[in-house]
Amino acid sequence: MATHPDPRTATWRPPASAEGPITADVPGALGGSRLFEQPQYRAELQAFCDFIEPPGPVAVEIGFDYGGRLLSLAQADPAVRWVGMEVRQRRVEALAERAPANLLAWRVDARTVLRQFVPAGRLSRVDVLFPTPWWDEGHRAKRLLLTEAFVADLARALAPDGVAHVATDVGPYFAHVEGLFAGWTPAPVPPVAPVPSRRERVCARGDLAVWRGAWRPPPAATR
Ligand SMILES: C[S@@+](CC[C@H](N)C(=O)[O-])C[C@H]1O[C@@H](n2cnc3c(N)ncnc32)[C@H](O)[C@@H]1O
Q1: pLDDT exceeding 70 applies to what percent of the chain?
Q2: Among 12, 62, 104, residue to substitute to test ligand 1 (most atoms within 8 Å of Cβ)
Q3: Ligand 1 atom 11: the closest Cα is on which residue?
Q4: Among 48, 65, 112, residue to substitute to test ligand 1 (most atoms within 8 Å of Cβ)
Q5: pLDDT higher than threshold 60 for residue 47
Q6: In a 3-state reduction of DSSP, which class is residue 157?
Q7: Secondary structure (H, E, C), 107-121
Q8: The architecture CATH gives domain 27-222
């Protein structure tokens, strides 16, 4: 079946403004990394730390939205502990109600967690499906998920044989992503989940082109 790009996607450009220095603090969508200095959020952070502490694979889906895909992955393989990170509160609450024991749904800005709270090499897989491209330069400069800084955080958080998996239907965004992962090792794209994400369904229904890639982190010495 032929696929075609959404014409709007051809106009996407990476943010024009250069990224600032990588610092410990992340100015995130939910108050940034300083949020977890507030007592009411410390319990959430502790729950995450407890969830990822026992040995065994830990995988992450960032921006799970409706969460059906993530739920199906967790149900399909109880030996893997999945953490879903999503900024939309109602989506998180809805998934948390249905989550099996090996799935933690967390309302959080993933950039903060990857920068500050994941022990080095702890993650076996990070899925980022259809990250918001942000069409206006202001939001793109501030909120774009896949940036040089974020990919550096991913490289630290992933195990040496861990995999970052990205999908998008915005071709120029994928070109930007390929540039960010240039020093990484291409890996097989993980098998399709039992249940597709909402955007995967939309793209399949509309016969829209989807770009996918998976990469293993570079050796620590070259990061
Ligand atoms: C375009 S939607 C794609 C949703 C889903 N992955 C799919 O394939 O249908 C992007 C999602 O990422 C979430 N998101 C955006 N920035 C985020 C961040 N920094 N941390 C966690 N989630 C984020 C948004 O709330 C939204 O649900």
Answers
A1: 87
A2: 62
A3: 63
A4: 65
A5: yes
A6: helix
A7: ECCHHHHHHHCCCCC
A8: 3-Layer(aba) Sandwich (3.40)
Q: Determine the atom of ligand 1 nearest the C-alpha atom of 111.
A: 19
pLDDT at 18 over 80: no
Q: Is the CB of 113 under 6 A from ligand 1?
A: no
**pTM exceeds 0.70:** yes
Six token digits for residue 77: 């393989």
pLDDT > 50? residue 174: yes
Asked whether the beta carbons of 117 and 33 are under 8 A apart, the reply is no
Task: Report pLDDT for 1.
Answer: 44
In short, whether 67's Cβ falls inside 6 Å of ligand 1 is no
Pocket test for ligand 1, best of 9, 87, 134, 144 (most atoms within 8 A of CB): 87
Q: How far is 56 from 214, CA to CA, in rounded Å?
A: 21
> Residue 221 C-alpha to ligand 1 middle, in angstroms?
31
Side chain identity at residue 72, one-letter code: S
Segments making up each domain of the chain, as ranges: 27-222
Short-list 87, 55, 75, CA closest to 193? 75
Distance, CA of 77 to CA of 86 (rounded, Å): 21
Contact by Cβ (8 Å): 125, 190: yes
73 token code pair = 């992955």
